[in-house]
């Protein structure tokens, strides 16, 4: 890719040097409508010389790897999050929460639907959270964030089938005496 960018940069530099000499001779020979088209093309081609475009953001990527006794989900974000939270929120799912509006400013990854997975059924971003669906409630998981890379290891665990959501804590009125 770097070689391609170098060739493109070299062509732009050559064009930028030759245009002032060729343009006065070329434009009078063209039909007025063609002149506008040539001018538009030259403007579009030369504009990045003057105003380089910012490097585009890349969407987060998802990868699933089956290993001995577990499956490893690797989520590579385009920017290291300041904080995150990965919780089991139902019998067969985990939810990754990143800072508010993270997915508004970063491209969302394509949904992952692995066909050969025994544990992970799918991964997708829904609203402001990433949902990891599991095939069975009999699972356990561990996770680690290293810079932009979040690794989630999911393994079969019969005790996971006993999981229940924490009971709701009743609100206690605040006394203002």
Task: Please tell me about this protein's structure.
The chain has 177 residues and is of the alpha+beta class. The chain is 27% helix and 31% strand. The chain is built from 3 helices and 8 strands; from the N terminus they run H-H-E-E-E-E-H-E-E-E-E. The protein has helices spanning 2-26, 32-50, 102-105, and strands spanning 61-67, 70-76, 85-90, 93-97, 120-126, 129-134, 139-146, 149-156. The strands form 2 sheets. A 4-stranded antiparallel sheet has the order 1-2-8-7, with no helix packed on it. The protein has a 4-stranded antiparallel sheet with strand order 3-4-6-5, with no helix packed on it. A hairpin with a 2-residue loop joins strand 1 (61-67) and strand 2 (70-76).
Secondary structure blueprint with pairings:
Elements lengths: L1 H25 L5 H19 L10 E7 L2 E7 L8 E6 L2 E5 L4 H4 L14 E7 L2 E6 L4 E8 L2 E8 L21
Largest sheet: 4 strands, antiparallel
Uncertain runs with pLDDT below 50, 5 residues or more?
1-9, 47-56
Q: Report the strand count.
A: 8
Please count the helical segments.
3
Shape: elongated
Mean pLDDT: 79
Structural class: alpha+beta
Secondary-structure element order, N to C: HHEEEEHEEEE
Q: Rounded to an integer, what's the Rg over CA atoms?
A: 27 Å
| Widest sheet: strand ordering | 1-2-8-7
As a percent range, the share of strand residues is 25-35%
Attribute tags:
177 residues; four-stranded antiparallel β-sheet; single chain; 3 helices; alpha+beta
In short:
This protein has 177 residues and is an alpha+beta fold. Helix content is 27%, strand content 31%. The protein has three helices and eight strands; from the N terminus they run ααββββαββββ.
